[in-house]
Design a protein that fits this description.
heterodimer; A: 521 residues; alpha/beta; Rossmann fold; 2 domains; 6-stranded mixed beta sheet; 17 helices; 26 strands; 31% helix; B: 331 residues; mainly alpha; ABC transporter involved in vitamin B12 uptake, BtuC; two-stranded antiparallel ribbon; 4 strands; 72% helix; membrane (chain B); transmembrane (chain B)
């Protein structure tokens, strides 16, 4: 346990399994963690809480050897622990299981369990030993042994997650970190996971559990550690919602939205565009199907309106948006744009018509890492900046100035490398890239993933302004708070099918989650 | 844009140092090479010899210019050498049957364009990795040349006077001017046009470029076409230089062109570089080839040195990329 002066004291008399003290981690100028302390005892279940950007994941990644801290020290079982890689941490007994399963989809469960440390006999894989040990392990964890021969990619997300937990256990994990494990699980699957967690804690494994869901708190944790803006914000043994919310609140601007989900925004309560139903339907899909991704989807995006598209990992939301953007195959169904049939062919075609898409993954799908802020911003506007093939530097500079001012992008001039910007400002550049094309339909896929709270509310405000100015906006998000604060209506996808269409008072966390996990039709 | 001093990830001292090494690599190699060869041979720095070097390097220079465009997009072409050989056979055959020079030049350009488009279609259209596709076409071109050659060397002179080494204006070979015009033109296209910007965007992050509405396939195809045209032109200067087409003519050019590009400092992973850097790389490689001969070193050493220099340049480039990734400065 940690008192407010930052001194680390042992939890409940038991010798601590893991003690992290004074952990500081910077990413450029952003301080993700400042002087954070954490103690976990053997067999203890600790929930790590805080809003997005509070530093939960960064702290866990420091423990798991993904990031090395800039300051601070960690001990594991009383010995200094400074993992240089996830592999290092694994060997020492600290394993992490991510929100989205990260195994090898083309290999069998057996091979996944043993990846990187296969037993050998005279230089050959000892398949017998692998199989025997693995079945004993699955048996102990209450998982069916028939899983072993199946391909990882064929399993449900819940089963994949359990295999990864089993893998962690088989590496003799003393501390198991679970990063929002239930966000992709149905209620039954979550219960199975909780039982497994209890069993492991009973056997002496320390558990760190990141969650956003208040409803599962009491079920999963003995102690609740709250982070805020990268610092310790307090901790408690009581699953007291009000007290936890108060600890988590960012800079006193905490608000609780209509579903009781915390939101750190001053503008939360101003419902975006009001319940007037929006303007004309700009983009509409009917029975849209792409085998293996989504099926029979109806969707409308209206002018002056923010539609939400929610779904868990693998629900097909990104594929759907990419299809409307001309970058994913469509097997059946119809799309109309401004009331006229429209067959999306390519992103170039879509952009030229006024349909813009902000990709889900900033790094792999958005940024041009070798290029400047200005070049990144202007990348989708080259056609209007060009005459007879020649780029007009003056017009480019004007465009870049206009939109970087508009979005208040913080950079050392438009000639600065894009990689010199913070994540939030990079995201603003990518948004500016789209807005600069002056689109009529704006599809934003996880527009604020992994960026700081201040920039997040700036982006939210700008998105509302765009809608108010007449843009038809579709926000895709796996973040509940974003759906609840931003969307005028919410379409929920579950395994590629629409399971709910909610508007006004119907938009609640419970309703969205039920639909997203396929509980309600 | 608000003025803010610090923002994103910081560069580690090791990365800063290595980036300096990378930018100083070519100048250091050039200076070292000139000093060593000047000491070993008094003729090395004579005007005559330098003009000679320029004339002899014209084919590599032309290929490397086009290759830079392809490499900037993250591609590669290992078939250029045998493409030159194959086109040269047709040129020599046409010329020995009395075809006028202007016509043979057109044939060379069309031939180069066709071979370039073949590579372009395989890589841009069918999405075959460029190293595999061009290894395949290289074998194809080599075999075609061998079959056409059919144990009969074809002798020939220069296609057109200004593509031969002998034609001078104020002592400067016209061929050198042709090369410089090509470099200047490509440079202007790369830095000042929509296509040029697209080339860098594709090399930086092809997925992001596509989602930003850039026609990746068309730009890639265009890059292969430009390389093909320059390969055709290089066949003309090659033929003027060697005067005869044999079973494996041109084969040695592929590696030298690639070496020029990477030693120049264009990233083999794409997104970073310029044709002007490549021109520096060409000068280095050309002086190396020439200096070794003048110094009386067995030509076996030539390959060794070229190989080492490629590995050095690519190694430094790779280390920079690795450190950038580690310090979170993206790619």
């Amino acid at each position: 346990m940690t008192d407010r002066t930052g001194t680390v004291v042992s939890s409940g008399g038991a010798p601590p399994l893991l003690t992290a003290s004074g952990i500081t981690k910077r990413f450029g100028a952003t301080r993700a963690l400042s002087d954070v302390d954490l103690v976990v005892a053997a067999g203890e279940r600790v929930a790590i809480m805080g809003e997005n950007g509070a530093g939960k994941s960064t702290l866990m990644k420091v423990l798991a050897g993904v990031h090395s801290p800039d300051a601070g020290s960690i001990t594991l079982d009383g010995a200094p622990f400074a993992p240089r890689s996830p592999d290092d941490a694994n060997r020492a007994g600290v394993s992490i299981v991510y929100q989205e399963p990260s195994g090898f989809p083309h290999l069998s469960v057996l091979e996944n369990l043993w990846m990187g440390r296969q037993p050998t006999r005279r230089g050959r894989l000892d398949r017998g030993a692998m199989r025997d040990e693995a079945s004993a392990l699955l048996d102990r964890l209450g998982l069916p042994a028939r899983l072993l021969g199946r391909k990882m990619g064929d399993l449900s997300l819940a089963d994949q997650q359990q295999v990864l937990i089993a893998r962690a256990i088989s590496m003799r994990a003393k501390l198991l970190i679970l990063d929002e494990p239930t966000s992709i699980l149905t209620a039954t699957e979550a219960d199975r996971l909780f039982a497994l967690v209890d069993q492991l804690a009973g056997e002496g494994t320390g558990i760190c559990y990141i969650t956003h869901r208040f409803d599962e708190l009491e079920r999963v944790a003995d102690r609740f550690v709250v982070l805020r803006d990268g610092r310790n914000a307090g901790e408690t043994h009581e699953a007291d919602r009000e007290a936890l919310l108060a600890m988590m609140g960012s800079s006193g601007e905490i608000e609780v939205d209509r579903a009781g989900h915390l939101v750190a925004e001053t503008s939360t309560t101003e419902a975006p565009t009001g319940g007037h139903g929006g303007g004309a339907v700009m983009l509409e899909a009917h029975g849209l199907t792409a085998h293996g991704a989504f099926a029979g989807v109806d969707l409308q995006v209206r002018a002056g309106w923010i539609s939400g598209l929610y779904g868990l990992v693998g629900a097909g939301r990104t594929e759907l948006a990419m299809a409307l953007f001309g970058e994913h195959r469509i097997d059946a169904g119809e799309v109309t744009y401004r009331g006229v049939p429209y067959r999306p062919r390519s992103s170039r075609d879509a952009l030229a018509r006024g349909i813009a898409y902000l990709p889900e993954d900033r790094r792999t799908q958005g940024l041009l890492p070798h290029m400047t802020v200005g070049e990144n911003l202007a990348a989708a506007s080259l056609a209007v900046l060009t005459r007879f093939g020649v780029l007009s530097r003056a017009r480019e500079a004007a465009l870049v100035k206009r939109w970087s001012d508009d979005l208040a992008i913080k950079a050392q001039g438009s000639g600065a490398p894009i990689t010199s910007l913070s994540g939030g400002n990079q995201q603003k550049v990518l948004l500016a890239r789209l807005v600069a094309t002056e689109p009529t339909v704006l599809m934003l896929d996880e527009p604020t993933r992994g960026i700081d709270v201040a920039t997040k509310s700036e982006i939210h405000r700008r998105v509302r302004e765009l809608a108010a100015a007449g843009a038809a906006v579709l926000v895709i998000s796996s973040e509940m708070a974003e759906m609840l604060t931003l969307a005028d209506d919410v379409t929920v996808l579950h395994e590629g099918r629409v399971t709910a269409r909610l508007s006004g008072e119907q938009i609640t966390e419970q309703a969205i989650l039920r639909a997203a996990t396929g509980v309600a039709a | 844009m608000s003025a803010v001093t610090v923002t994103g990830p910081s560069r580690s001292p090791a990365l800063v140092a290595l980036e300096r090494v990378q930018s100083l690599l070519l100048p250091a190699l050039l200076i070292g090479e000139v000093i060593v060869f000047a000491l070993l041979s008094s003729r090395f720095l004579s005007a005559d010899n330098l003009v000679n070097v320029a004339v002899n390097a014209a084919d590599i220079a032309l290929i490397a210019a086009g290759l830079t465009v392809v490499v900037l997009m993250g591609g590669i072409d290992v078939s250029t050498g045998y493409a030159v050989g194959l086109i040269s056979w047709f040129l020599a055959t046409l010329m020995s049957s009395g075809t006028p020079g202007a016509l043979t030049l057109i044939v060379a350009l069309i031939g180069g364009a066709l071979l370039g488009l073949l590579n372009g279609l395989l890589t841009a259209r069918l999405s075959i990795p460029s190293i595999v596709a061009t290894l395949g076409t290289s074998a194809l071109f080599q075999t075609a040349l061998f079959a056409l050659w059919n144990r009969r060397d074809v002798f020939s002179g220069p296609v057109l006077p200004f593509l031969s080494g002998s034609e001078r204006a104020a002592g400067v070979p016209l061929m050198l001017l042709v090369v410089l015009v090509v470099y200047a033109a490509l440079h202007l296209v790369l830095v000042g046009t929509r296509v040029g910007r697209s080339v860098f965007a594709i090399g930086s992050n092809v997925e992001a470029a596509r989602l930003a509405g850039i026609d990746v396939r068309r730009v890639r195809l265009l890059g292969s076409l430009v390389l093909g045209l320059l390969v055709g032109l290089a066949a003309c200067t090659y033929l003027a230089r060697v005067g005869v087409v044999q079973a494996s003519s041109g084969g040695e050019l592929s590696l030298l062109a690639i070496a020029s590009v990477v030693v120049g400092g264009t990233s083999i992973l794409g997104g970073e570089g310029s044709v002007l850097r490549t021109l520096g790389g060409v000068v280095f490689i050309a002086l190396l080839e020439n200096g070794i001969v003048l110094a009386g070193v067995p030509s076996l050493w030539n390959g060794l040195l070229v190989g080492c220099v490629i590995l050095l340049a690519v190694g430094v480039n790779g280390a920079v990329v690795l450190l950038r990734r580690r310090s979170g400065v993206a790619e």
